[in-house]
Write a structure and sequence with these properties.
This is Acyl-CoA dehydrogenase. The protein is α+β, with helices and mostly antiparallel strands. It is built from 10 helices and 10 strands. The chain is 46% helix and 14% strand. A 4-stranded mixed beta sheet has the order 1-4-5-8, covered by helices on one side. Strands 2-3-7-6 form a 4-stranded antiparallel beta sheet, with no helix packed on it. A hairpin with a 2-residue loop joins strand 2 and strand 3. It starts with 6 loop residues before the first helix and ends with a helix.
Length: 411
């Protein structure tokens, strides 16, 4: 299937491969000599946070990637990004995850700490202050939507923003926030008009150096990456120019961010899954049992075949859905969002979350005891796969969205 495999995708992947060899490999070698862990298995500091040397290595990759024009293919060309379609990004993300594996190279493509579709709606002043440095890899961001007792039910959040002259005053606590410990600017979603339904929320760009803004405790998760934590806002003053979009756009903007992460599952799972399948094939050919390679065992052959089937089906579904999203008025992140978009986006997430979990489970099984070893690619990606079923909306929520689309005739 060639959907989205354009000339600029070919150019990007060629340049990315060269970047991995010329820029990332030496940084990984230097990091290994420091004995502080790796990008996805970092040593943690006393507070349970990612070791600063690992964080700085990631940051250096981000800065170099931005300088090479590789960091932000997913954001609009009008704000300094590549302006790639979602179908094109499927191929880009698949290449990056397959060839970077679990190394520093993953930092070369902006993840949740970089610019995203929601922040593109910021004011000209905020663009100069926040978005341009994000695109350049000079600073990092965090998305603060979830709270201690509020996940999917975002309209129940307790964080409030009240007007004060030309400014806004924010109070509340956010939890389970990726990059909470290091972000320079935080996209905070808060209630500005209680009881107004989807118009009750607004999004603010909050300077992490603001008085009243503090970083809370680390929240260890099964990823064990030292990046997740709490954020506290007590009387934090935010100028009107740092409201993203218009007051009342917060729900739509939050969904744009969340849907972006859902759609990234397609390339991520295809890339990592293909890498795992390659490793499983090599293991099956070289590991012997009873004097013969385990690849000759039908049970192992069936596991390899099932991995391939899951990867092929999920990848094809992702490409088809993202191509359809690209063709919708407003695309995947329009405001307002086209009624067909939620079903297509949820299909990408649930299909990949569940297929990738099966792929990682079989990868561990093919490797046997070595697949259980802490820090091995199979063990780490098995934990990541289990984690993926919850963030950006659980697999159960995705099924709800798919059903709603079907019942309203969205096909």
């Amino acid at each position: 299937m060639t959907t989205g495999r354009t000339d600029r995708v070919a150019d990007y992947t060629t340049r990315f491969a060269a970047f991995l060899e010329a820029e990332v490999a030496p940084l990984e070698a230097d990091l290994a000599e420091q004995d502080v862990g790796t990008a996805f298995n970092p040593r943690l500091d006393e507070a349970g946070r990612m070791h600063p040397a690992v964080w700085e290595a990631r940051r250096e990759v981000q800065r170099r990637s931005a300088a090479a024009g590789l960091y932000t293919p997913h954001v609009g060309g009008e704000v300094g990004g590549g302006g790639f379609t979602r179908a094109e990004m499927q191929h880009v993300e698949e290449f990056v995850y397959r060839h970077a594996g679990l190394g520093l190279g993953l930092a070369a493509l902006a993840w949740t700490e970089g610019p995203n579709p929601a922040i593109e709606h910021c004011s000209p002043a905020a663009r100069e202050r926040w978005l341009d440095p994000l695109v350049a890899g000079e600073i990092t961001a965090a998305f603060a939507n979830t709270e201690i007792a509020v996940g999917t039910d975002v309209l129940a959040m307790k964080t409030r923003a009240r007007p004060d002259g030309d400014d806004w005053i924010l109070d509340g606590t956010k939890a389970w926030i990726t990059n909470a410990h290091f972000a320079d600017v935080v996209q905070v979603v808060a209630v500005t008009e209680p009881g107004a339904g989807t118009r009750s929320l607004s999004m603010f760009l909050v300077d992490a150096a603001s008085p009243g803004f503090t970083r809370g405790r680390d929240i260890p998760t099964m990823l064990n990456d030292g990046l997740t934590g709490e954020l506290h806002l007590e009387g934090v003053r935010v100028p009107a120019q740092d409201v993203v979009g218009e007051v009342g756009d917060g729900f739509a903007l939050a969904m744009a961010w969340i849907n972006w992460r859902r759609l990234c599952r397609g390339g991520m799972c295809a890339g990592w899954g293909s890498w795992l399948l390659e490793r499983a094939l090599d293991r099956a050919r070289t590991r012997t049992s009873g004097g013969a390679p385990i690849a000759e065992l039908q049970s192992v052959q069936h596991m390899l075949a099932d991995m391939d089937a899951d990867l092929y089906a999920a990848r094809a579904a992702s490409l088809q859905a993202q191509a359809e999203l690209d063709d919708l008025p407003g695309g995947a992140f329009g405001m307002p969002l086209h009624p067909d978009a939620p079903r297509l986006t949820s299909l990408v997430k649930v299909i990949n979350d569940e297929a990738f979990f099966r792929v990682t489970d079989r990868a561990v099984q093919v490797h046997g005891g070595t697949g259980l070893r802490l820090g091995s690619p199979e063990e780490k990606l098995f934990r990541i796969a289990r984690n993926l079923k919850i963030p950006a909306g659980t697999v159960e929520i995705q099924r709800n969205a798919i059903a709603r689309g079907l019942l309203r005739g969205s096909r």
